[in-house]
Amino acid sequence: MKVDFEKIFKEFEEDISRIKDLKSFKEVKDKYLSKEKGLITSLLKKIKEIPREEKPQFGKNVNILKGKITGKLEELKEKVELLELESRAKEESVDITLPGLDLPVGSHHPIKIVEKEICEIFERMGYFIAEGPEIETDFNNFEALNFPDDHPARDAQDTFFISEDKYYLLRTHTSPVQIRTMKKYGTPIKIIAPGKVFRRDTPDPTHSPIFHQIEGLVVDKNITMADLKGTLEKFARECFSEDTRIRLRPSFFPFVEPGAEVDISCIFCKGKGCRICKNSGWIEILGAGMVHPAVFEKCDIDPETYSGFAFGLGVDRIAILKYGIPDIRLFFENDVRFLRQF
Ligand code: DAH
After folding, report:
1. Fold of the domain built from segment(s) 110-339
2. Sequential DSSP letters for 271-337
3. For residue 207, what is the DSSP state?
4. Coil vs helix vs strand at 14
């Protein structure tokens, strides 16, 4: 049996000249070098049929052929891979001159819009923004704010306690930020502190166990109730409209003396009386007062030298008024049909 090694190699060279991608490369490689069906393997199998004295030469020739084929294919492999990469890059390339696709964007939550608006009004008056944690201690939330031990707000009915000993709780108002700020920075102070607060309330159109407040605190020498009134008047005009008036009604909060509830003239009927203001012409929006000397003492501030005012306003209530929202629960359901309107 005669095998023409040169002819095989010529055929191989023709085969590789037609290689244009990894697929055709692999086909050629298999045709010659596959362990099961490759040409080299079948040549080696033929060695049985070769006359004894020709076997060594035949074996040598097969090995030379295998070496040449393997060498060529190795050389080619790199080129083919490069080609493949180039064609893929071409296929997958992006036309950067095309107009971009619009990504869907969300909107700000109405509570956040109103919170930001209110903060900006106070920032323009020179206030800094302070923050406190939502998990508070009994000391900051109640004790330092002069709440007596048996105050009903401390009851488990109103407060979410989160430790057995009732030491840790979810803050029921933003007033503990007053304590934190006075203890940390001393005097003078001019801050507002926005944030979430928590109370054990059954949800209904006007109640939610989570809601939002903004606390204000100003401490310095010679701060008076007149400063408080002027500040809140300015705030009401900026937040609602130039013709909005305010009214202070005496009220009690343990951490202020005197304390007041503050109303704005009804923004719907301008004070004439309507359904929203229940015909009173006034709408309550915040609590305020002069910082109680006992609170100063808990924070190591001398009440003989310093005085201050504080206020706390309900953000949800103001958002409800501004946007005419019928139910506080809408703020927390996060239905996009509601949220998209802002
Ligand atoms: N913390 C009070 C509340 O949640 C609101 C409040 C009243 C805050 C009077 C004050 C204040 O700073 O002076 O009901």
Report:
1. BirA Bifunctional Protein; domain 2 (3.30.930)
2. TS--TTTTTSSEEEEEEEEEEPHHHHHHTT--TTT-EEEEEEEEHHHHHHHHHT-S-TTHHHH--HH
3. B
4. helix
Highest mean pLDDT among 5-14, 77-86, 112-121, 144-153: 112-121
Q: What is the 3-state secondary structure (H, E, C) of 40-54?
A: HHHHHHHHHHCCHHH
The DSSP call for residue 157 is T
Which has the closest alpha carbon to 194: 216, 209, 168?
A: 216
Sign of the C-alpha dihedral, residues 157, 163, 169, 170?
Answer: negative
| Contact of 194 with 315, CB cutoff 8 Å | yes
**Is ligand 1 within 6 A of the CB of residue 290?**
no
- Sequence ranges of the domains in the chain: 5-92, 110-339
Query: Which residues lie closer than 8 Å to 68 by C-beta, 6 or more apart?
Result: 9
Find the range with the poorest average confidence among 1-5, 157-161, 224-228, 277-281: 1-5
Which of 146, 253, 284 to mutate for ligand 1's pocket (most ligand atoms within 8 Å of CB)?
A: 253
User: Tens of pLDDT along 122-158?
Assistant: 999 999 999 999 999 999 999 999 999 988 888 878 9
User: Is the CB of 312 within 6 Å of ligand 1?
Assistant: yes
* Tens of pLDDT, residues 223-276: 999 999 999 999 999 999 999 999 999 999 999 999 999 999 999 999 999 999
Q: Ligand 1 mean position to 126 CA, how many Å? A: 21
Ligand 1: does its nearest atom lie under 6 Å from the Cβ of 115? no
Nearest ligand 1 atom to the CA of 255 is: 13
Atom 10 in ligand 1: which residue has the minimum CA distance?
311
pLDDT of residue 192 exceeding 70, the answer is: yes
Compute the distance from residue 125 Cα to the ligand 1 centre, in Å. 20
